[in-house]
Structure formats: C-alpha cells, structure tokens
C-alpha cells in the first residue's frame, strides 16, 4: 500500500522539523558552552542527537513505504537569550509546537484510516509527552536551584551526566 500523498508530504516535512530541532538544540548548547555551563551544553548536545534520530526514523519509514524523500532548507536558529532560563523556556515552547505537528499528522492518518502510520506515530506521541515533561522539569529545576551559584553549579553537574541512548525503535528502523 502506497502512502497517501498528503501524509507522505507531512512526514517528509517533519524530517525537516526534527533536523531543525537538532540544529536549535545545538544552538542552545552553543549558548551554554559560551556561558561556561558545560553540563547544560552537554544535555542539549545529547538532545540534538535524539532529534537527529527522530528525523532518521521518519526518513526510514518513508523509504520503507516507497516514498522518495526530499530535503528542504533547514532554518537558522535566530534566538538570542537574555538569561540561563530563556533557552529552557524556548525549549518547552518548541516541544509543544512539535507535539502539535505530530498530532496534526496523526489526525490526518486517522481520517484516512492509515493505521500503519498511526502505529508508527504512536512512538512519537509518547516521546513528545516525555520531551515536554523533560523540558518542563528543566525549567522547574532552574527556577528552584539556578538562582544561586552553588545551585547552578550542582545543576550543571547533574545535566553533564545525561547519557545518549538510541531509541529502541530506530534510527536504523
Ligand atoms: Fe523530536 Fe524533541 O521532538
């Protein structure tokens, strides 16, 4: 069964959005590295790797379903940050946006009774829940502990411990 044209286009576009997410989070990492917060920078470097995995999963799904993948331009991350909290808040807003994109694709798949794509996207639906929770937790911790130097130091140390783990379902799916 060939993928529906609209669904294929939305999934193809989502590859670009996920690669942009990787680019955006690397930009956050650049900011934190410049601020001397290497743990925060590391956390976002790992996050960028996960975003690339998401892009690869989408790409592989399209290829496996007979769709010719095409790439667009990846937008330039253009945010400037006033303080250490700002990227974290931008991160949550971005994940909420990505959730809305995934939800839109899911909705079209549902309307067109494309159960295969719905099943594929189930992983992303769950992942987005986790991504939003992680982003929200970062903000909460920063607000609680980030205001004084010792707290910020400890938080930076904690975030330095994040380990990259490829997701169970791919990038090689
Ligand atoms: Fe690929 Fe952060 O969602």
Structural description of this entry:
It is a single chain. The chain has helices at residues 5-34, 38-64, 86-111, 115-145, 149-159. The longest helix is centred in the C-terminal third of the chain and has 31 residues, at 115-145. The protein has one domain (5-160): Ferritin, core subunit, four-helix bundle (Ferritin, Up-down Bundle), CATH 1.20.1260. Helix 1 runs antiparallel to helix 3 and helix 4 runs antiparallel to helix 5 (149-159). It is elongated, with a radius of gyration of 17 Å. With 173 residues, the chain is mostly helical. It starts with a helix and ends in a 14-residue tail after the last helix. The protein contains five helices and no strands.
Q: In a nutshell, what does this entry contain?
A:
The protein has 173 residues and is an all-alpha fold.
Please specify the SSE layout and strand pairing.
Layout: H1 5-34, H2 38-64, H3 86-111, H4 115-145, H5 149-159
Q: What count of domains describes the coordinates?
A: 1
**Any idea what the radius of gyration is?**
17 Å
Number of strands: 0
Per DSSP, what share of the residues sits in E-state strands of 2 or more residues? under 5%
CATH architecture: Up-down Bundle
State the end-to-end CA separation. 19 Å
CATH topology call: Ferritin
Bound molecules: MU-OXO-diiron
CATH class: Mainly Alpha
* Main beta sheet: none
The CATH homologous superfamily is named Ferritin, core subunit, four-helix bundle
Chain-averaged pLDDT: 95
Estimated structural class: mainly alpha
What proportion of the residues is helical, as a percent range?
over 70%
Shape call:
elongated
Order of helices and strands: HHHHH
* Number of helical elements: 5
Give the uncertain stretches in residue-range form: none
């Amino acid at each position: 069964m060939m993928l529906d044209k609209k669904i294929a286009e939305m999934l193809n576009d989502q590859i670009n959005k996920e690669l942009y997410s990787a680019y955006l989070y690397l930009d956050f990492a650049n900011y934190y590295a410049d601020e001397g917060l290497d743990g925060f920078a590391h956390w976002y470097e790992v996050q960028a790797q996960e975003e690339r995995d998401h892009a690869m999963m989408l790409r592989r799904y399209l290829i496996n379903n007979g769709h010719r993948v095409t790439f667009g331009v990846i937008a330039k991350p253009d945010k400037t940050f006033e303080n250490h909290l700002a990227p974290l808040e931008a991160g949550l807003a971005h994940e909420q946006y990505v959730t809305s994109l995934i939800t839109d694709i899911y909705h079209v798949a549902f309307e067109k009774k494309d159960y295969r794509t719905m099943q594929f996207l189930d992983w992303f639906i769950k992942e987005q829940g986790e991504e939003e929770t992680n982003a929200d937790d970062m903000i909460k911790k920063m607000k609680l502990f980030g205001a004084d130097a010792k707290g910020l130091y400890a938080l930076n140390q904690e975030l330095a411990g994040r380990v990259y783990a490829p997701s169970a379902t791919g990038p090689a799916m």
